[in-house]
Amino acid sequence: MDNAFSRTALLLGEGAIQKLASSRVAIFGLGGVGGYCLEALARSGVGAFDLVDADRIDTTNLNRQILALRSTVGRLKTEVAAERVRDINPAANVRAYSIFYTDESAPLFDFSQYDYVVDAVDTVAAKVSLALRAQEAGVKIISCMGAGNKLDPTAFEVTDIYKTSVCPLARAMRSQLKKVGVKSLKVVYSKEQPAQIDNSAAQKRVSGRPSPASCAFVPSVAGLIMAGEVIKDLVL
């Protein structure tokens, strides 16, 4: 399409561009990590997406989420994301699901149709379920560990979940994955110790669960690293 991906083709080759155009990637979670991952994949020429997120854009998202603008506050993240992808690549096929991914909603998704799954959700239960479903379907998946309360974007690593350390979320994941028989999971994680944050009442979500502190340059880097891994695994 008008040489939109010609610079990428110089690096990867025309065959890779065709492969990406014929690939479908499911992204679960469109926040600070998932939104930037989607952006990079769309700009790399991935031709089809399933986008899953129940949230609407809030003013508290403006400091770090690429989908969050004053003009998009209050709108569904999936709706804004689908529009953005199509504005980058009008030929892209986008299916949006404005729901939370849980064990109950999991049957709505046929993992066998995906070429890759991106896990950018927050809860351990959902992350474990995604890993298990992907394993059962024989689909590649990459999962992001904790990016909140951190300031060093250079501390991220890509490894297997069972080789991680320091990260509290990764520790919880290892325990749960063992229980369900997931023996391997590619993850992006940080060895940076989380900052100690005073979660005052003003910092808590409507649910009462403390919100982690975050910035523009840590979750975005995690998302871009994930996108790079997806591209490499799909075409290299």
What does this structure look like?
This protein is α/β, with parallel strands linked by helices and 236 residues long. It is 34% helix and 14% strand. It is built from 7 helices and 7 strands; from the N terminus they run ααβαβαββαββαβα. It has a 7-stranded mixed sheet with strand order 3-2-1-4-5-7-6, sandwiched between helices. Helix 5 (124-137) links the parallel strand 4 and strand 5 (141-144). The longest helix is centred in the C-terminal third of the chain and has 17 residues, at 219-235. It is globular, with a radius of gyration of 17 Å. The model has no long low-confidence stretch (mean pLDDT 94).
Keywords:
alpha/beta, 7 helices, globular, 7 strands
List the helices and strands and how they pair.
Elements: H1 6-12, H2 14-21, E1 24-28, H3 34-43, E2 48-52, H4 77-88, E3 93-97, E4 116-119, H5 124-137, E5 141-144, E6 156-160, H6 168-180, E7 186-190, H7 219-235
Quickly give the structural class: alpha/beta
Strand order of the largest sheet: 3-2-1-4-5-7-6
Beta-strand share of residues: 5-15%
Q: If helices are DSSP runs of H or I spanning 4 or more residues, what is the number of helices?
A: 7
Series of secondary-structure elements, N-terminal to C-terminal: HHEHEHEEHEEHEH
In short:
This protein has 236 residues and is α/β, with parallel strands linked by helices. The protein contains seven helices and seven strands, in the order ααβαβαββαββαβα.
